Amino acid sequence: MSFKFVTADQQGVIYAVTDTGDLLYYRDQARDGTENWAFGGTGQKIGSGWGSFLHVFAGGDGVIYAITASGDLLYYRDLAVNGTENWAFAGVGQRIGNGWGSFRQVFSGGSGIIYAVAANGDLLYYRDEHRDGTSGWSFNGIGQNIGVGWGNFLHVFGGDKGVIYAIAPDGGLLFYRDLAANGTKNWAFGGFGQRIGNGWNGFWTVLAGGGGIVYAITATGDLLYYRDEGRDGHFNWAFNGLPQKIGNGWAPVSIEGYCWPLSAGPGETIEFKVSSGSACIVTYLRLKTQANGDPGIPMGPPADVAASIQNTAANWVSEGCNWSTTFRLQIPQDWNSGIYAAYCSDTAGYSFYITFIVKPPAGNSAKVLALASTNTWNAYNSWGGYSKYGPMTPNTLSFLRPNPSATPLDDGNANHLTRADLWILNWMEDVSFRPDVITDTDFHLGLSDLSEYQALVLTSHPEYWSLEMVDRIQTYLAAGGSLIYLGGNGMFERCIFNDDATALTFFNGDVTLGRPQAYLRNLQPPRPERAVLGVAFRFDDAWGPPPSTNVAFPYQVIAAEHPLFAGSGVANGDLIGQTGRQGVNGGGASGWEMDTSNVGNHGDDGIIVDATVASDRGTPPANLQLLARGTNTDTHAADMTYYDTGAGGFVFSVGSICFGGSLVQDAALQTVVTNALSRALAG
Question: Which of 3, 290, 294, 542 would you call most buried, defined as having the most Cβ atoms within 10 angstroms of its Cβ?
Fold first, then answer.
């Protein structure tokens, strides 16, 4: 059994709609994080035919609202609220509104209040004044606009007393409070969401149960209990924010999967493991956005594949899901190296992208090699509620699990993984610099002969590196290779591959010691990335609290006479990278996590630095040239730099995660990167 909708009422009541359309009643009797369920945790069937609705959400006191495919809003009321079937109007939904079918998200605020997120991101307020199945609305049923910019949130759900929680694409849990709760704009904290948690983007669904209780359901079907004890916009959680597992078997109706290995060359085979409640259709795509918006080019006709719900191993977090192989792909000889996906869709309309890399064939390489940041993809993969960033943070994370974060789709806001890498790689292909592509795992294992390549490209967010990877890049540069770093927060933190390279260990193996001891600049001996890249990330150089959140800025040119600016037509003081695809202000090239060339204030003194202006380590090469600097603030922005290695190559760095989203639409940046690639290929 799997669920299509799950919604919480008051006093621990949870309603769930199954894959067959049955409505089940559950009650969390304890409501304190312990497992104590009415009926021994067995859902009581109290209705049927609920599977065709677009949205189902509880409104308190047994009221349930449902939105039909035609946009009608229906009212139901569970009169018993005890697991027996006793409905107002004999269980027939009462139509109390229409035109509700286009909303992104709809949820209750209690006392008849309904909030709806419109297609354009506006937050609308409604109030069902009667709450009895008749049409009696505040403002004659016209939604009152009380906020904007709500369209990018993964989940939005209401607490009580005007509290609204929202989960951002980066996993942040934000607290809002509608102080007026009457259709006028009056928000706590001036309407700025207060971050009260991290790592919440891996849940299938999240719902509020009243009194600060938040229930979260993982992709593996675990039901987790949290309680926001403060409900005031500050971090004040029961159990110090650690989830309490109070149930399992709550798996969603969906299709998902993963593959291994993550990369293969022509003639080699990749195994795909898919979990689905029905047969699925598989289409292989080379990921390159098409003029019509499609994310990739089909590499052949769709294929029907038999699939079933897979059982997940108990130790899946660190050792993998251990799903059975659903289908295999032997990479055809004529497939070019690059990023691909198996696009899987089922009969219920669900779909999932399983992203993989096609490596170059042996002995037939391009002149440019790009590194797909698959270590970072794994660190941010919060499938099942576990990631490097919480809410549950283990020492070790397996690659052998579905990774929805590796989707090629543009989320409109927080792209820093696969989608951001594709902007860079697709543009390179468009201007005839088609690179070979390998994974971090390939680079770690030394599977490519780097001497064949004149340029190595790092993409948007190459944050996590093994020491073997650091050694390889330094050896490559010492042999005369050139490095073009087109991202931010690169080579920042150490990770450790397990023996078969199917998992990464973080925190040097002990999460209780915290992150800083694993920063490359804090290792013994230190391996500060600024000595290699010319720049390094500091936590001061990142999107902070409002109003700077998600705001990106252009660079200002400092050394227009440098050869990399040739043909760009820019002069010192000019702004470049003024627009982009990341950032709420229309974007810019300098933003999110940014790197600086400024010298750290600690040498090799054994002190653990925290990677801030006040506590940093690392010195750039003495011949480093500062080409441009972001205009974010006078002290915190991305540095664009260049230096010759002395071995025949060079290192060019841009120091910004947002760079790729600006590169694809800014002519000056395109000229600079074209010049860098051409310079590397000229030797």
Answer: 3
According to DSSP, the β-strands at 44-47 and 55-60 are: unpaired
pLDDT of residue 260: 98
Burial of residue 508 (CB within 10 Å: 0-12, 13-18, 19+) is: middle
Query: Would you say 104 and 119 are in contact if contact means Cβ atoms under 8 Å apart?
Result: yes
Longest dimension (CA), the chain: 83
Omega before residue 621 within 30° of 0, cis:
no
Alpha-carbon radius of gyration of the chain = 26
Predicted local distance difference test score (pLDDT) of residue 559 = 98
pTM: 0.82
Residue position matching structure tokens 């995660």: 657
What's the number of CA atoms in the CB half-sphere (13 Å) around residue 419? 19
- Counting as low any pLDDT under 50, the low residues of the chain are none
State the DSSP H helix or E strand holding residue 2, giving kind and residue range, or none if neither: none
Q: Are 564 and 672 in contact (CB under 8 A)?
A: yes
Say how far apart CA 625 and CA 560 lie, in whole Å: 11
The long-range contacts involving 312-317, CB below 8 angstroms and separated by at least 24 positions, are 312/220, 316/220, 316/384, 316/398, 316/400, 316/401, 317/384, 317/386, 317/394, 317/396, 317/397, 317/398, 317/401
Q: Tell me the C-alpha distance between 146 and 162, whole Å.
A: 12
**DSSP code at position 602:** B
What are the residue ranges of helices labelled H in 347-500? 374-379, 418-430, 440-445, 467-478
In SS3 terms, 213-237 reads as EEEEEECCCCEEEEEECCCCCCCCE
Range list of H helices, 380-447: 418-430, 440-445
Q: How far apart are CA 376 and CA 364, in angstroms?
A: 28
Residue 611 is classified by DSSP as S
Tell me the two tokens of residue 672: 């600079």
With residue 460 as reference, give the H or E element that holds it: none
Angle at 618 between CA 617 and CA 620, to 5 degrees: 155
Antiparallel, parallel or unpaired: β 575-576 and 555-557: antiparallel
Cα separation, 39 vs 50, in Å, equals: 22
Contact of 9 with 60, CB cutoff 8 Å:
yes
Q: The tokens 């002069």 sit on which residue? A: 571
How far apart, in whole angstroms, are the C-alpha atoms of residue 143 and residue 130? 16
Please give the span between the terminal C-alpha atoms of the chain, in angstroms, as a whole number.
61
| pLDDT recorded at residue 583 | 74
Determine the pLDDT at residue 668: 98
- 3-class secondary-structure state, position 432: coil
Annotate 305-359 with DSSP letters as a single string: E--BPPPPPTTHHHH---PPP-EEEEPPTTPPSEEEEEEEEETTS-EEEEEEEEP
User: How far is it, in rounded angstroms, from Cα 9 to Cα 61?
Assistant: 7
Q: Quote the pLDDT of residue 477.
A: 98
Tokens matching residue 323 = 């799903």
**CA angle, 661 then 662 then 668, to 5°:** 150
